[in-house]
Design a protein that fits this description.
Chain lengths: ~250, ~270
Amino acid sequence: MAVLTVNHLAKTFNIGTPRASRVLDDISFEVRGQTFVSIVGPSGCGKSTLLNIISGVEEHTSGDIRLTSDDGKPARMGYVFQDPRLLPWRSVMRNMMYVQDDQSETTVARAKRYLDMVGLSKNADFYPGQLSGGMQQRVGIARAFAVEPDLLLMDEPFSHLDAITARGLRAQLQDIWAQSKKTVVFVTHDVVEAVELSDRIIVLQPGGRIYEDITIDLPRPRRQSDPTVATLQAEVLARLEQMKEMSQLAEPVA
Amino acid sequence: MSTMTENRRRSTTEIEESTSAWRKRLTSDGAARVAALLSFFVLWLVVSAVFGRVPGPVEVVVRLVEEFARGEVFGNFASTLYRFGVGVALATVVGIAVGVMMGLSQLSRAFFESPVLVGLSIPAIIWSFLTVMWFGFGDMSPIVTTFLTAVPFVIINVAQGVRGVSRDLRDMSSTYNVPLSRRVRDLVLPAVTGYVAAGVRFAVIIGWNGVLLAEWFGGSGGVGYRARFWYDANRYGGFAAWVVLFVGFIVLLDRFVLDRAIRRAFRWRDA
């Protein structure tokens, strides 16, 4: 089980220049194993930047991030991006294997298993260009789970898809997560999606600070049609609207 | 009555289908290529009929057959192909190495950019004069001319290809800690393949010019040398026969080897 610890993390772009802008400010939280955590907030509040810093794609300005696994081995990360990011010149199966540590038969079998879980086992030899956007994103999800990550990062993976495809994929993600129980940090601007999927929701406010850390204690699997899910979604949405109003009031008058 | 109407309807559909099939054939790429060849052939016939100093197709074929009979074709062609092959191979290897460096490093780009631009702007004829002065008659001069003419095209294409490798895919590879060897094999090389192929295609066509010019001015054998032999002898039929031979060779090489190799490299895009 992996533990992700983020301590007083800050990020400033264009540091030392007149265009310097702080996007994350004093972010601290901890994510323990087998938890599904969503980070929500309005556009530009630093959600994706936070995920990129956790993944190591971007440097942070100050603070500390630690990802530890129980067995003492370096923790393994998976990442599902907004767009699928598949190699267009490699087949679906070759894309699955591209990110694997080893190319053994066990790993191939695991990749096939996850491909089967997202319903694409028959498309293993297809090129990504032969698949729809939703199918490509399913490959991206299967690829991330197939590396058996200690921590899985997901950056608005359904934001580019139509509502029906996104709903299907959310249900599929819940099923896979229920079977694999990976630690997930999921970035989204969609509160409805966050409530449906998460054990915890961290709300970021404009300026990159944590506004609230909400625990979602609802039985799984969750469906949007469930009245308790819908009630909680409305409640969280109301809190976000309240945060937005307070942020607008706090803005200096020009 | 209804059977007659059905028969008439069926035959109308058949006529429409057959007309549309013919229209498709006539407006296809293949038909356009055949039309271009025929137009050129007709133009050649007309020009040779009007101007006495332009040999016609029949005379050219006769001279070509004579050259075959004399045993001049295979030996000279083999010499040229050897020089051309070595020059293009060297240009490809050096071009890929320098192009990758230019694509990856800002410092390398700053270092190589001006020499490459100078190389691009010097025509093959100048290189052929220079190499004949430097290396005299023999294999070295056409090989170096081919190399110098072709290498800037490979460099510039490869550098552009390396710079164009998707940032998103590079970030994805970093996130998953994909080993460098696998990144080169599965990400960089396929991304650059199209640019390498385009660069080599340019290099082949431009290098062919280079080798022929170097042989023309400083060769003691080869296709360029043989074309000049007939030119100096004021026998335009012989000269044109060699022109047809080397133009035909480059067209066939491009169409049946390079074009197919490029299509193969991009088959994922057409899938």
